[in-house]
Amino acid sequence: MIAFAALIHWGWELDPKPDLGRVEIGGGISLPTYVSGPLSHAWWAMVVLLAVAASLYACLVFSYLYLWLVSPQVWPQSLPSPAWPGVAAGALLLSSAIAGWCNRRLSTDRSIVPLWLAIPFLVAAFVANLVSLPTPPAQNSYGAIIHAFAVLDGFFVACATVLAVFALARERAGRLDRVRRVTFDNARLFWHYTVAQTLAGLAVVHGFPRLVA
């Protein structure tokens, strides 16, 4: 907890206020003193982080398919109702739509306060996904691997929530606006990735068995 608080404190002092505009560096060339989006180092750092996360998730998908190939007998004979996975998918898409809406609002000097609405949808999607799992984790390898998907997705949901609350707090403190937006941009990237990853997990765990049945 102390380490987490220290990270929050450290991150709070990052992304200083841009107050110099463009500066001349000689030869008639001027450069901006603040950038966001793909021109920002922070944006690319988040992209690299998500690429690493995607490779980790791909390993989990490979493990799932490997277990299905070598131990098909542990897969349930009757699949659960797709209702809960459907609810989870709907909540995920809605949360991502709200994050995209907040991005458009920030681009026009409006508040990202509606991002608060996206958080319960993301958490609800995780809960619905967890409820939908048909086999306890200790019963067999199938139960273990599908709960591994849920646990990893839950970790990303928790991280996305922290990043969203952090961005909201910075806006409340006057440290985030249309120009000074790197914190929100990174939180938005992570949010959309979390939604995409969780949807992929739903497709693998609930869609794949139906596809090959």
Briefly say what this structure is:
The chain has 213 residues and is mostly helical. It has helices at 2-12, 41-70, 83-107, 115-132, 141-172, 182-212, and strands at residues 22-26, 29-32.
Can you put this structure into words, describing what you see?
The chain has helices spanning 2-12, 41-70, 83-107, 115-132, 141-172, 182-212; strands spanning 22-26, 29-32. It is mainly alpha-helical. A two-stranded antiparallel sheet has the order 1-2. A hairpin with a 2-residue loop joins strand 1 and strand 2 (29-32). The mean pLDDT is 89.
Helix content: 55-70%
CATH superfamily: Cytochrome c oxidase, subunit III, four-helix bundle
List the strand order in the largest sheet: 1-2
**Count of distinct structural domains:** 1
Continuous helix count: 6
Mean of pLDDT: 89
The CATH architecture category equals Up-down Bundle
Number of strands: 2
> Helix and strand succession?
HEEHHHHH
Beta-strand percent range:
under 5%
Give the C-alpha Rg.
21 Å
Judging from the principal axes of the Cα atoms, what is the shape? elongated
Overview features:
213 residues; mainly alpha; Four Helix Bundle (Hemerythrin (Met), subunit A); two-stranded antiparallel sheet; 69% helix
Describe the secondary structure blueprint for this structure:
Elements: H1 2-12, E1 22-26, E2 29-32, H2 41-70, H3 83-107, H4 115-132, H5 141-172, H6 182-212
Antiparallel strand pairs: 1-2
Helix pairs in contact: 2-5, 2-6, 3-4, 3-6, 4-5, 5-6
